[in-house]
Design goal:
mainly alpha; two-stranded antiparallel sheet; 13 helices; 2 strands; MarR family transcriptional regulator
Length: 238
């Protein structure tokens, strides 16, 4: 198995776990403003840095559909004639609040306090992981597809905690693989609906292998020891 294939479930576990742990806080961000969550809750780390061009938007939303009626009606986003999406002032306020809510919840999740903190070294490893992820994102500018290019570099407050930086960078990194996966099933002649319904078997395995091959180059910037640090560090997070 390639390193990309080996670390994928670890990245997904940490990021999805952080998002799930912050669910109540994120919902509170919207409830306080009488809004419903939209695309800014998924792509905040990129949207706070720049508008999302049409090709990046289409790629990032290809599995979910691109209905932006709610975002337009709530006034959190506007679209340019060329299909570029950008946050309004309200949208930026919400996106930043979501970013901090997810990061703050993750910091609490990853720093359980004594006596567990002595047995779970995850929190102490955050600065190292943030640095490694930053190098990966920089390297991905040469290999990433349209969704990754739209969402990286990520926006981070000047005084952002390591947990805010880590969750934001993980969110962007996952889109390097998403672009690789989309390219793999498109090369196999499949549609979105077909890949969603594709059962386990030789064709699914071939697409997963091709996804790993396309995703692997981003990790070439790391040495063997740094790959171990990344895999072990993320795996140690509660």
């Amino acid at each position: 198995m390639s390193f990309a294939g080996r670390i994928r479930p670890v990245i997904d576990r940490v990021y999805v776990g952080a998002r799930a742990g912050a669910r109540d806080r994120v919902l509170a961000v919207y409830a306080e403003r009488d809004l419903k969550p939209g695309f800014e809750s998924s792509f905040y780390f990129g949207l706070l840095a720049r508008p999302m061009p049409a090709d990046g938007f289409a790629a990032a939303t290809s599995y979910l559909g691109g209905d932006m009626t709610a975002e337009l009606e709530q006034g959190v986003a506007v679209v340019d004639p060329d299909g570029t999406w950008r946050l309004t002032d309200l949208g930026r306020e919400v996106a930043l609040a979501v970013q901090l809510a997810i990061g703050d919840a993750a910091a609490e999740r990853w720093n359980p306090g004594p006596p567990l903190d002595a047995m779970l070294p995850g929190h102490a490893s955050l600065p190292r992981l943030v640095d490694l992820l930053g190098r990966l994102l920089d390297a991905g500018s040469a290999t990433g597809g349209p969704a990754f290019r739209a969402l990286e570099p990520v926006s981070e407050p000047v005084d952002a905690s390591p947990a805010v930086r880590l969750t934001s960078r993980l969110g962007a990194l996952r889109h390097h693989r998403a672009d690789a996966h989309r390219a793999a099933w498109q090369a196999a002649g499949l549609t979105v609906q077909q890949i969603k319904e594709l059962p386990a078997g030789p064709q699914r395995q071939a697409i997963d292998a091709e996804t790993d091959r396309r995703d692997e180059p981003i990790y070439d910037v790391l040495s063997a020891d740094e790959k171990v640090d990344l895999l072990a560090g993320l795996g140690a997070l509660p």
